[in-house]
Amino acid sequence: MKISMTYIVYYYATYLIDNDPFVAAQAHLAARHLERIGDHIINIAESVYFYLTGTHYEQ
């Protein structure tokens, strides 16, 4: 029986989040900061696109 690493990480992460309020709060904080980092990366990419092409990026 082969168990994937993704399953193991998901299992233990959900176990910790469900059983420890501190871990749940830290996971929420980390997720929020990762989302903000992603938003900044998108802004940088759109600025580079505008710099290179002279037009705004349309989705």
Automatic annotation (TrEMBL):
Q: Which InterPro entries match?
A: PhoU-like_sf, PhoU_dom
Q: What is the superkingdom listed in this entry's lineage? A: Bacteria
Organism listed in the record: Staphylococcus aureus
Q: What is this protein called?
A: Phosphate transport system regulatory protein PhoU
- The UniProt record lists the PhoU domain at 24-48
Q: Which gene encodes it?
A: phoU_1
